[in-house]
Every structure is written in C-alpha cells, then in structure tokens.
Amino acid sequence: MSDEPRVGAGGATFGVLGAVVAWGKGGELLALKGPRHRAVLGRLIVARGRVVPVDVLVDDLWIAPPAGAVSAVRTFVAALRRVLEPERAARAEPRVLVTEGPGYALRLPGEAVDAWRFEAAVRAEVGVEEALAWWRGPAYADFSEQGWARAERGRLTELRLQAVEQVAAARLSAGRAAEAVPDLDAHVTEHPWREEAWRLLALALYRTGRQRDALDVLRRARSLLVDQLGIDPGPALRQLETDILRQADHLAELPAREAVGPGIDAATGTAAGEASVWDRAVAAYEQGVGARARLESTVGLLRSLAITGGQGLVAAREHRLAAITAAEELGDPELTARVIGAYDVPAIWTRSDDEDQAAAVVAAAWRTLAALDHRAAEAEPGVEPVAATPLQARLFATIAMESRGSGSPQAQRAALAAVELARMLDDPGVLAFALNGLFLQTFYRTGLAPERDAIGVELIDLAGKHGLTTYEVLGHLIRIQSRSALGDYNTADRHAAAANQLAAKHETPLVSVFTRWYGVLRDPSEEAYRDAAKLLDGAGMPGLQGGLLELAVLTVRLDRSPLDADADYGPYEPWVRPLLTGEGLDAVPDPPKDLLQELLWVLLAEAALAQGNNQAAERAEQALQPAVAEETAGSGLITLGPVAEILDRLRTRRTAD
After folding, report:
1. Is the Cα dihedral 173, 176, 178, 181 positive or negative?
2. Which residues, given as ranges, of the chain have pLDDT below 70?
3. What are the residues whose beta carbons fall under 8 Å from the beta carbon of 305, sequence distance 6 or more?
4. In degrees rounded to 5, what are phi and psi of residue 98?
5. For residue 595, which of 305, 382, 635, 652 is within the disulfide window of CB 3.0 to 4.6 Å?
6. Stretch(es) of the chain classified as CATH 1.25.40.10
7. What pLDDT is attached to residue 253?
8. Pairing mode of beta strands 13-15, 21-23
C-alpha cells in the first residue's frame, strides 16, 4: 500500500480524505496559508469543476460577512494561484484555478483529487485496497462544521463504509473468514447501526466453526437495534439467524458477487478492515495500536452522531461511556483524556439526559486529570498549572458539562479552570467548549441571567470568527434564554431567528425544538404547548422532555383553570405537589440549580401563600431576591412572569402578618 499522492497531469494534486491539503509535483506538501485559503480550495473541490460564484464563496466562508469580504476572497484566490502554479508568468492566464463568469472553478484531471480517485477505484472494482489506504481521517476533517462540506463528507463516508464491508465480504468469498473476523468486530464497534457489518461478522464466525458466537453476535445486533435505535433487524439478519440455527448448506459458501459487491475485486480486494479505524497495519492493530486509533475515531463519529439528535444522540450516549472505559483499560492517560475531551457536543439544557452516565464520565475525567499529574485535581483557578494543555482544559470542561444542575462547587471551579486554561492556550475550539461548561455552571443561585448573557455574546463572536457553527448556534440559544429572563423579548426574537437560520443552513435539527418552544412562550396556550411537545418525541433528550409539557400546561392554567393533580410532572413533582395537595411543603428540598430554578421557587412561593406557611414563604423570598429584576422565563420555554410580582405578594403577606 502506498500513501504517496499520485500527481495529476501537469501539476499539483489534492487531498480531502482527511484535512484539506495539496501536494506538489514531487509529492511535497504545499503551504496553503490559513484556514480561509483551505476553505476556498475545499469548496471549489466539492464543486467538481463547476463555477462557484464569489457571493456564494462569501456566504460559505462567513456567517456574517465582514466589510471587504469579496476583496478578501479575491486575495485568497490570488494566493492559492501562486502556490498551485508557481511557474506561471505574471500576466499569463491561470490554468488550474480559473476565473469564469461570476466566480471561480478548479480545472483538474480526475486523478488529481484523492476523493475522486477513491470513488473511481471503487466503481471500477479494482485497486480498492490502495484506495482505502488513502484515507487520512474523516473527509474534509478541518471543515466538519461547514454546511458546504456536509453532504460530500456524508457521501464519501458512506462510500468508505460500504467499501470496508465489501472487502470483508471478499475475504469470505475467498475462503479467508478467520481474517475477516477481527476487522469486522472493530467495524461493528465503531458503526453499530450497520446491519450488513453485523451480518458479515456473524457469517464469518459461523464459517470458522464458531456457531454459538455467531448467534451471540446476531442477538447483540438485535438488542442494539431494538433497544437503542428503536428499529427491528432487517430481513437479511433475520434470515441468517434462521439459517445458522438450521445449519443451512448454502452458508458454507457465499457467491463471489454477493460477497464482494460493486467496487471490490474478489481475487485482489484484500484491503485491511483496519481502514474502519483509520489504521491499516494488521500487526499494529493486534498489538493495541489499532485499538487506540479506533477509540479516538469512534468518539469523533459519536460526536457527529450526537449533533444529529434523535436516535443518533441516544446511540452516541450509549457508546460514549464504553469508549471511555476501553481507553482507561489501555492504561494510557493521554489517550483517555483525548477520548473524554473529544466529545465536545454543545449543550443548552441544564438537566442531564443520563445522570448515572454523567457521574461515571465525571469520575473518569477526575481520575485522568490526576493521572496526568498537572496539579489538575485541585481545579483552583488563578494558580498557574505546571503545564497548560488542551487535554487538561477539555477534561475540566467535561467535568463542568457533565455536572450540570448539581450545584457542585468543585464543578464550578472546574468550569473556571477550563476557561482560564483555554484563554492561556489561545485555542478557539477549546475556549468554546470551556465557555459551554461555564454556562452550565452559572446557576449556583438565582438571578444570574446577565452572566449567562455575557457568555452567549462571547460565544457568538468567537464562533463566528472561527467557523464553529454549532457553538454559534449555542450562543444564540443562550441569549434567547438570558434575554427572556431579562424581559428583553425583542432581542430574544432576533436570536431565535438567527438560530433558525443557522440551523437551516447547517442541518442541526434539534435547534427547532428550542426555538419552537420559545415561540409558544411569547404567546402561551395549552394547545400550542401540546403541539410543540411533539417535537420532543424521538429527539433523544429525556432530560428535557420528562415532565416538561405537564409543567408548561400548569404554568398556563395556574391562574385560570383547575390544576391537573393526576398529571405526570416527572422530575418537577416535588415542587408541584405542595401546590396541588396543600401538603408536604416543609419537606420539599431546594429546586435544582438549573434553568427552571426561579420558576420552581415561584411555585413553592405560591404554595406557601396558599397554605399561609410563613417559614416556607420566607425561604422562597430569600432565594428569589437576587432575581428581583428578572422574569421566570430563563429557560426560554415557559414562564410565570416577573419575579418582582411574587416578591411583592410575599412581602405584602409578611407585612399583613
């Protein structure tokens, strides 16, 4: 196998199966300057020779284009031309990156781009082993957040996964089932939702005389598909299970075409399945190196899966902890830190979807910090650590993220330490992650909407400058919440519109859940909340969904209709029940330190007023006083109006007594 680029006719060649790069005639890497230059090059490669107008390039490079954006694009193009055609005379027409009509295009032969060669090799059914070796990482790896790259990344990734499975089938067809087993096992670990991979693994095990293991694999596949993804196994898996139980004669051989599929030559298509974990060396895999690579690439894929929401988010959560556990078992703290810290999925809601898993992740992060021995376990901001590293900052940020709603002082210190380290490192991606953790720790008392608003402002600015789209969306969602808490709904409206625009452009479906609920908050009704709640079905966010609709309906009915004592208020039950039954108020704990704490304190205050419980009323008044200038709309989803109104009623009652 060769990693060397194949030089296209007369000039440079280009790689997008990993980070976007260019090679010269001799195979040397060309200096493409900054990320905007590489983005222009990548965007033109995606266009496959078609002209990309300048205004489209501007929109793709910036969410909010600065003044002079068109001139900047022309500067990027001029710099790229000097790199790609260094021998071109000053006034000669460019032959590679050409100007045509309203924009630019790349004029390249088919073999000049590794992705094009990869696709051609698979379609031609030759050289697939070498083609799989060209992958250096996820396609367009440095532009994973950019909308212009998303469809092409998905298409190429799917093509690679199919090729890996076809290679495994080729091994089965050639009578080398035992060779296929370890690679297929790695493949299903990394991509557990691919039924064909499970089928091939079970068949390979059966052909090596491991009938019981083959049946166990099929049952594992069924369990994962049904329990975690909510779908039944397809007919191929079901039929294979039946055939194995019957020991059907036809399982002894698989026709070459069925095994190989389009894109693989049965005689020579012995590409290492290690490509599924970006590692091509069988020996290295067997010695544990492949396992490390597989773990790191798995977490990257889980992160991408989580952002899609729905069952993808559920599956990502399920497999994340397994990846962390596997990394710890390898005894490499830096690997474990990378696996833990790579899952930087933006989070806006302050109740965990899986509290047990979150606690396990936090514990693993603390263990890893201690193992790295950077005086990290103290988490004391203001004290310069022995070595400020992105790994350390990401571990602190993870602790802050996963400790959301806990009110833990240690988690608050971790959040501050993460931000301090990220600023020292001057790393935009790490800083965005750390700011997300800090946001989730700004609920240690009521009335902190201004602090959260400042975080939202910084996130929008930071993410916009550095192309961190998911964090830019997060910044807008934070500002919807904070401006709602501050009663500034006009500004919140603008951020809702901006979040929706970004979500539509970059295909982030979970955003609409929050913006739709915010729209109902602006004009609340029971019917509208019930309609908005449908978006939560299948969204993969139980921490948000549980009891929320019932609580929303209660906020609408509070002053108008009888409250529903039989509704399932989920985690909010302790703070709703005294209002419904008139009992147990003194035993109710403080509300969780999260986005709904002001609203839940108001419910306790209402119960205290209704019952004439002065002690509970005083407790609620003290808790709500810091939020006197805010509204109970900090969630951006539901509200019970201004905090000042309930405080006035509490004071009036106390004065009357």
Report:
1. negative
2. 1-10, 228-230, 253-302, 304-315, 373-388, 507, 657
3. 312, 313, 315, 316
4. -105, 155
5. 635
6. 149-287, 300-510
7. 60
8. antiparallel
Can you tell me the distance from the alpha carbon of 314 to that of 295, in angstroms, rounded to the nearest whole number? 18
**Do residues 58 and 73 lie in contact, with contact meaning Cβ atoms separated by under 8 Å?**
yes
At 547 the three-state DSSP class reads coil
Instruction: Give the H or E element holding residue 553.
Output: helix 548-557
Q: Which residues, listed in sequence order, are joined to residue 100 by a DSSP beta bridge?
A: 103
Which residues, other chains included, contact 98 with Cβ-Cβ below 8 Å and sequence gap of 6+?
104, 105, 106, 107
CATH of domain 149-287: 1.25.40.10
Q: How far apart are CA 195 and CA 206, in angstroms?
A: 17
Q: What are the residue ranges of CATH 1.10.10.10 in the chain?
A: 13-112
CB atoms within 10 A of CB 220: 15
CA distances from 624 to 94, 278, 460, 628, 646 (A): 68, 54, 29, 7, 9
Distance of alpha carbon 657 from alpha carbon 651, whole angstroms:
10
* Of residues 391, 420, 389, 639, the one with CA closest to residue 521: 639
CA–CA separation, 552 and 603 (whole Å): 12
SS3 of residue 639 by DSSP: coil
> What token pair was written down for 580?
């419904």
- Residue found under tokens 């602090």: 451
The secondary structure of 231-292, three-state, reads: CCCCHHHHHHHHHHHHCCHHHHCCCHHHHHCCCCCCCCCCCCHHHHHCCCCHHHHHCCHHHH
**Predicted pLDDT at 229:** 64
pLDDT number for residue 284: 31
Cα–Cα distance between 631 and 637 in angstroms, integer?
Answer: 12
Rounded distance, CA 320 to CA 187, Å?
16
SS3 of 513, please? helix
Q: Tens digits of per-residue pLDDT, 418-435? A: 999 999 998 899 999 999
pLDDT of residue 228: 65
Tell the residue number behind the tokens 């007919």, with chain if given.
235
pTM of the model: 0.58
Query: Which residues make beta-bridge pairs with 113?
Result: 14
pLDDT of 123 reads: 81
Helices and strands, counts by H and E, the chain: 30, 5
d(CA 43, CA 14): 12
CATH fold, domain 13-112, is Arc Repressor Mutant, subunit A (1.10.10)
**Class of CATH domain 300-510:** mainly alpha
- What tokens were used for 645? 């109104």
Backbone angles phi, psi at 565, to 5 degrees: -75, -15
CA atoms within 13 A on the CB side of 21: 19
Q: Which residue has the tokens 């998303």?
A: 150
pLDDT in tens, 476-534: 999 999 999 999 999 999 999 999 998 888 767 789 999 999 999 999 999 999 999 99
Number of Cβ atoms within 10 Å of the Cβ of 137: 14
For every residue of 293-319, DSSP letters joined together read HHHHHHHHHHHHHHHT-HHHHHHHHHH
- Where does 308-427 have alpha helices with state H? 310-329, 333-341, 355-372, 390-402, 409-425
Angle of helix 489-506 relative to helix 469-485, nearest 10 degrees, comes to 160
Contact 134, 118 (CB under 8 A): yes
| Cα separation, 563 vs 557, whole angstroms | 6
